[in-house]
Write a structure and sequence with these properties.
single chain, alpha+beta, 3-stranded antiparallel sheet, 7 helices
Length: 335
């Protein structure tokens, strides 16, 4: 074979090998990873006591992977924060806003996750239209609506939430000391409200948040301090698009302290693997329509096998010192 033909053959071989390798890479899915973050955070740009830089630094120092800033009627510019704290893609700050509305002297607040332009409160003629108008405005501006603290000011009921369309996320747990997540006086907890919504066929993904305002009052039980509630999303990478997509799709769990190694849902059931801490013990409840406990497990992993006629199944994991985690509802019979 002449040198020219040899080089031609070699070039064709290298090109074919490169094309095949690229094709195989395109067919190999990017492995998913878990990223811990908070979706409700305030700074001194609204009613927090610390600057956006101080807030981002706190969350980075405490091993969060991402932080969504949601000041009242203010959009933080996050580019410089990511330049300063991003650490080569290991930490991410995402822009957002808490749209702060009300009706009949009661508060109706909706976060717009991922918003890059301000959405002013839209108001309405009643509770439902007030919420709906703000949800619609957030969607129109490219954000993901998160309905915040329904029991704050005893403002919202499950019946009212059932009439709202287009909201993806619902705060069922908050570290804020004044939002009544546990209910009381005949008013259900927000978790109970969530089950009412799910039982009626309304899909909301449950989030746990800090709603933090006060870095400078750590240890003060009357303050809204950070580090109490968070979400852990399953995503291909730590980018705004990947994190927001995971939140939109319910690819995450919520926690007030329990960590999971993994949770998997397939056509036969749910498997939850808990990241156990020394001296702690764990109990997992699998919960279905009406908030009814379908099964309980003290094993790790905790496994539930789907039965007939279940409309949804979710899990709640209890830790022996009071910490919790919640997985999103699975729909075994949904086509």
């Amino acid at each position: 074979m002449s040198p020219t033909l040899h080089l031609l053959f070699l070039s064709v071989f290298v090109l074919s090998f490169t094309l095949l390798a690229n094709q195989l890479d395109a067919q190999t899915p990017t492995p998913l990873r878990w990223f811990k973050g908070n979706t409700h955070t305030h700074t001194s740009k609204s009613d927090g006591d610390s600057s956006p830089e101080e807030v981002a630094q706190w969350y980075k120092n405490h091993k969060y992977d991402f932080l969504i800033l949601t000041d009242h009627e203010y959009i933080n510019t996050v580019d410089k924060l990511n330049e300063r704290f991003g650490d080569g893609g290991k930490f991410l700050v995402v822009s957002g806003q808490e749209v702060t509305d009300g009706f009949d002297k009661k508060p109706y607040h909706v976060n717009g996750l991922g918003l890059t332009k301000l959405v002013m409160p839209q108001h309405g003629t009643d509770i439902v239209s007030t919420l709906q108008n703000n949800v619609d405005a957030i969607r129109k501006s490219g954000g993901i609506p998160q309905i915040n603290h329904p029991n704050f000011g005893w403002a919202l009921t499950a019946d009212e939430l059932l009439k709202v369309r287009g909201a993806s996320l619902l705060e069922i747990y908050s570290g804020h000391p004044l939002v009544n997540v546990m209910g009381g006086g005949g008013v259900p907890s927000v978790e109970n409200m969530w089950d009412t919504l799910l039982t009626a066929g309304q899909i909301y993904w449950a989030v746990a948040v800090d709603d933090s305002h006060h870095l400078k009052r750590m240890g003060d039980e009357a303050a809204a301090t950070p580090g109490h509630g968070w979400v852990v999303v399953r995503a291909a990478g730590l980018t705004p698009a990947a994190v927001l997509s995971a939140l939109e799709k319910g690819e995450f769990y919520a926690s007030s302290g329990v960590e999971l190694e993994d949770y998997l849902v397939n056509s036969t059931g749910i498997t939850i693997t808990i990241k156990e801490k020394k001296w702690s013990k764990y109990r997992t409840q699998f919960i279905g329509a009406g908030g009814r406990v379908l099964s309980e497990s003290i094993t790790n992993p905790a496994i539930y096998r789907f039965r007939r006629r279940e409309t949804y199944v979710r899990a709640k994991i209890f830790e022996s010192n009071g910490k919790l985690a919640w997985t999103q509802p699975a729909y075994p019979n949904r086509k």
